[in-house]
């Protein structure tokens, strides 16, 4: 298949926090891969900014090391890396100080896209936004990219939005949720709105329920103190899983346009019901397999923060009334697997005996590993001896279907950074969306805090607490097995 990489406009991208973990693991290697693929024009510049006293050569060394560590061997070409590094420079800046801003201003060029990636703690967003604007470094066409977490409740998200709005218009603000940069997540929209097949049955009348699972095998060791202030609800559900839920549940936007798409997502969030306490299960992983449990990793013996959550969510609108969405996410689970399963209802009348192997149709969208989709359908089991049914997958693995290009799926970050340069906000969260998601999440969190509830322990390498199984069983349903 012919490559369809379309170069973006030339840009100056400043990465505040350019020496940090996210920059080294995702942003800088991702930019190199886009350069390697021919999408980043040669006239573009990347400027690292942090307090560390580095010169250009020192920062280039850091970037070269990051490429070495995080870019696959087949894309590490010496000549290409050298050309990429020529486009890299560094300025030492304290976000809260006065030094370095004149130097940064002098480095910026006119006639290219200006983007500023805030890969720093959210407490610094305001200081950087204010200085970019008061020093005349950002103009009315410049873009800023802000990382998660975007607030820890509605009040802090509103304050953050107000701080950014004091210096930048909403059309300039790109709030990253890297789940939206995943190929399969965008494919959800393509499958729903570019085919006649699914949309007519995409409703409560035909869909029994939806399961969204994000399971990780890692624990919180190394960042337990940070995680303990957040927990699975704030870290995963309010943002990433909410975005997945929106893309499954939203009405067709009138056009694939940033505000049209985000308007529809916002309507879904506003239609979410409060979640009853009996529809929530929270867990904490126990010690096992030679490793400490959540309590040891969080360094907080009295911690009531959840490393696992499962919940049943209802959307009060015509399309979804009566069809629950079950969400679950956890750490130290049996496998690393993220998927969405749309589980369809039984046919209205069966001419076959159900005992002969009937199972419900499912559309399974795999986010990781092996991005792709599977449609589980019933067919006749081959062979003589009567009509026995068997469920088989119609496998739509992108790597198989699209050859090399399908296998070479760009990382979510590199795709989203290119969208920033293109000026396309479709895959970024709008301020009102984030606030609506917190307005839904806040009372749920306040509820269990007010009731003083402790999460249940669950074994590492398991599927989570037993009560999470009960959440489904009592509705006559079952979770899909968590497996890679
Ligand atoms: P990190 O490793 O701690 O890096 C922080 C960066 O900010 C460093 O480059 C640091 O360099 C710089 N910095 C700190 N204080 C500064 C100041 N006053 N002025 C200028 N620069 C300053 O953090 P990170 O993991 O890269 O995370 C960055 C942001 O991304 C955070 O908001 C985080 O929540 C978010 N995020 C990270 C990940 C991830 O996988 N790491 C994933 C999702 C979201 P100096 O100390 O030299 O100044």
From TrEMBL:
Pathway: Carbohydrate degradation; pentose phosphate pathway; D-ribulose 5-phosphate from D-glucose 6-phosphate (oxidative stage): step 1/3. It catalyses: D-glucose 6-phosphate + NADP(+) = 6-phospho-D-glucono-1,5-lactone + NADPH + H(+). One of its GO terms (biological process) is glucose metabolic process. The gene is zwf. It is an enzyme of class 1 (oxidoreductase). This is Glucose-6-phosphate 1-dehydrogenase. Substrate binds at residues 178, 182, 216, 235, 331. Residues 449-469 are annotated as: Disordered. Belongs to the glucose-6-phosphate dehydrogenase family. It comes from Neotabrizicola shimadae. The keyword Oxidoreductase applies.
